[in-house]
Amino acid sequence: MKLVVVSAGLSVPSSTRLLADRLAAAVDRQTPVDIRVVELRDLAVEIAHNFTNGFPGRALADALEAVTEADGLIVVTPVFSASYSGLFKSFFDVLDKDALAGKPVLIAATGGSARHSLVLDHALRPLFSYLRAVVVPTGVYAASEDWGAEGLPERIDRGAGELVRLMGAGTAPETAVVPESDGSLPKPAGPDRETRADGGSARGGAVTRSHGFQVIPFEDQLAALHG
Fold first, then answer.
1. Could you give the 3-state DSSP secondary structure of residue 195?
2. Do both 35 and 135 map to the same domain?
3. What contacts 126, CB < 8 A, 6 or more positions away?
């Protein structure tokens, strides 16, 4: 699988790039991936020219193609004025509007204060939702005091694990998994269930797929609530 990491850090060394590398390493620990890092600071001039003449330079075109063909993305930006950086936004402005449709994306950001952590949900998540990407539930924010502190490694591993699962799935599940009425996890299919031709089984109105999860039709759930 191809993993592309987009880093909008400006300084060298950069805490944004450091977070990007840690996220990529966490993904690679959980499943082998081909990692490509796109440093936006190296593409700043070509991005600006693309806005004025409508054509990407060679390096920018290569980066845009890598993002389009990736199986998953990690995107990391520094926080400027309580939002993503202009360079970060400009790169995704010149990307084809359909390039990220259905693509798993792990969002992350760095900043000088923990007060900016809401940038993940107030700026980054809406941007990639608009681009029709599949944004993983866990976003990773790293303030200056987070480096070397408890909590950041766990968030990195959790976000990486969610991205791995989405990259491996390829597509969203066709049916939702519904817990049992007592709140417990669904039980595997037992011998008392009738096996269906499609590999699942049926008992009453409930259907259990071959992977063992029980799927209850909505009308049955509604009837149980009213009952």
1. strand
2. yes
3. none
C-alpha span between 86 and 174 (Å, rounded):
38
Q: Are 92 and 131 in contact (CB under 8 A)?
A: yes
18 and 124, same domain (yes or no) = yes
Q: Is 190 helix (H, G, I), strand (E, B) or coil?
A: coil
Q: How does pLDDT run across 55-112, given as a tens digit for each residue?
A: 999 999 999 999 999 999 999 999 998 899 999 999 999 999 999 999 999 999 999 8
Q: Within a 10 A sphere around the Cβ of 45, how many other Cβ atoms?
A: 11
What is residue 193's three-state secondary structure? coil
For the chain, what is the largest distance between any 2 Cα atoms, rounded to a whole number of angstroms? 68
Can you give the pLDDT at residue 12?
Answer: 86
24 three-state secondary structure:
helix
CATH number at residue 8: 3.40.50.360
Assess whether the previous peptide bond of 13 is cis (omega < 30° from 0). yes
Instruction: Indicate the number of domains in the chain.
Output: 2
CA atoms within 13 A on the CB side of 215: 14
Of 211 and 48, which is predicted with more confidence?
Answer: 48
Residue for token digits 């809401």? 118
| Whole-angstrom distance, CA of residue 128 vs CA of residue 92 | 9
Give the domain extent around 165: 2-169
Q: Choose one of 133, 151, 169: the last residue of a domain.
A: 169
